[in-house]
Design a protein that fits this description.
Length: 497
């Protein structure tokens, strides 16, 4: 029997009364595994109001108690790590290895949320003027909201609500309608960890429900991860309603390959970074820039990429899983066809891929283009599939110029044996996250995820210190006390309570 996904409102899992439902499918077979409700306006309102009422209580809870909630939560997440990974695999199609990584990177952020007290400290200056002190207080905003994508259904929600809640806010989560099951299990474990009813709410739906959140006066801050057009819309709509918004968008991440690099390391890392998770990650390497004689390695790269095969989540031989939907597969194949038509050399074509026993899955094998130029659509657009495009330049300076002319600025890497080349690259490149001999430079959560330019709309980034600042406001107090007012005399008493 097909599962009906619940809402999570006021600390209770409840069935929606909507008449509008969405099918949730298994990407490996396109079988329907669940039906998802598009929450009614009344249900949306109840979730937001419950979060508001709980905020009035939760903001007064001691920061140490909020930190202890996160300690209990991370313990439960670790205890249920494999179970979460299996659930995530079944709804996303990810291999077990990819799914475990998704869950673990989320757990790392929860661990950082347990360190919330040190990140909530303000600043103090004594005697800014005669007998006057000034100090700042870090206080929560109120009800915050997260709108998360399909590709990391554990990690990205865990980027958001644990830090927001640890900082004293309450939270309304709207997970992707394509992968809601992992988010619901995260909520169950959060409740088991002892979260008060109403601190976290989960609602489901599509654009109608998103627009309700974007315009609702109670919502103070919105976190989003997704495509460029939607991120731009979220940012413009949310800020027009006087909300704080961080919207993480698309990417075209480049790896620069210098001729002095370790060839075996380059090829191995480039294969994994381009086709891992079926290329459906915003930090995937989707463009390789070969400098000088390193272009001679492209044929060997194609040979190694061809060895990687997609498969179902529990196939230990599978390099990655299916694309998320039939529409996503059709879009990627359309871009592959455009690349061929525009003159790129398709050295490896994965568009006619099948997996035994799963004829209806959204399969796509590794695909490699060489001879790509910057005016081709396969370079200009984020493909979001297991497709790597290769460009060739003569010098490091030309590589830096090429990448800085690309509108995106999420992540990049350089492989080289030269410290001078690496320093020049990291200094001059206009990209937020840089790897040196590291293909996917996603920072650990005591730093922040810092995409630039068209890859991000907003000011303060995800997790780390910037996330705490995003979910809080600074209050500055200037105080003066007069010594003449100090009480004195034999009748002065101090009462302790």
């Amino acid at each position: 029997m097909t599962q009906s996904v619940s809402l999570f409102i006021g600390g209770e899992f409840c069935q929606s009364e909507t008449s509008d439902w969405i099918d949730v499918t298994n990407p490996a077979s396109n079988d329907i595994i669940a039906t998802l409700p598009c929450a009614t306006e009344d249900e949306m309102e109840r979730a937001i109001d419950s979060a508001l009422q709980q905020f009035k209580l939760w903001k007064e809870v001691a920061v140490s108690d909020r930190a202890r909630l996160m300690l209990r939560y991370q313990h439960l997440l670790k205890e249920h790590h494999d179970e979460l990974a299996e659930l995530l695999s079944k709804e996303t199609g990810k291999t077990t290895v990819d799914a475990k990584g998704d869950v673990w990177r989320g757990i790392e952020v929860v661990e950082q949320a347990a360190n919330i007290a040190s990140n909530m400290m303000g600043e103090t200056v004594e005697n800014v003027a005669t007998d006057i002190d000034t100090y700042s207080l870090i206080q929560p905003l109120g009800v915050c909201c997260g709108i998360t994508p399909f590709n990391f259904p554990a990690m990205i929600p865990l980027w958001m609500f644990p830090i927001a809640i640890a900082a004293g806010n309450t939270f309304v989560l709207k997970p992707s309608e394509q992968v809601p099951l992992t988010a619901m299990r995260l909520a169950e474990l959060f409740e088991q960890a002892g979260a008060p009813k109403g601190v976290l709410q989960i609602v489901h739906g599509g654009k109608t429900q998103v627009d309700y959140l974007l315009s609702h006066p109670t919502i103070k801050a919105i976190s989003f991860v997704g495509s460029v057009p939607v991120a731009k819309y979220i940012y413009q709509t949310g800020t027009s309603h006087n909300k704080r918004v961080q919207a993480f968008a698309g990417a075209k991440n480049h790896m620069v390959v210098m001729p002095d690099a370790n060839k075996a390391q380059v090829i191995s890392n480039l294969v994994g970074a381009s086709v891992g998770a079926a290329g459906q990650r915003c930090m995937a390497i989707s463009a390789a820039v070969f400098v000088g004689e390193s272009k001679q390695w492209i044929d060997e790269l194609a040979t190694e990429m061809a060895k990687v095969k997609p498969g179902v989540w529990n196939d230990q031989a599978a390099g990655y899983g299916p694309l998320i939907s039939q529409q996503a597969k059709a879009r990627v194949i359309g871009l592959i066809d455009e690349g061929k038509a525009q003159g790129a050399k398709c050295q490896l074509d994965g568009s006619q891929c099948s997996v035994e026993g799963y004829p209806d899955g959204n399969w796509l094998a590794p695909t490699l283009f060489s001879g790509v130029t910057t005016d081709m659509s396969i370079y200009q657009q984020e493909i979001f599939g297991p497709v790597l495009v290769c460009l060739e330049v003569d010098t490091l300076e030309k590589a830096i110029e090429l990448i800085n002319n690309n509108p995106y600025g999420n992540g990049t890497s350089i492989f080289t044996a030269s410290g001078a080349a690496a320093r020049k690259y990291q200094h001059e490149i206009q990209v937020g996250q840089v790897g040196v001999n590291v293909p996917i430079p996603v920072p650990l959560p005591f730093f922040s995820f810092t995409g630039w330019r068209a890859s991000f709309y907003g000011d303060l980034h995800a997790y780390g210190k910037q996330a705490v600042r995003f979910y809080t406001e600074t209050k500055t107090v200037t105080a003066r006390w007069f010594e003449d007012d100090i009480p004195s005399g034999p009748n002065m008493t101090i009462q302790l309570r």
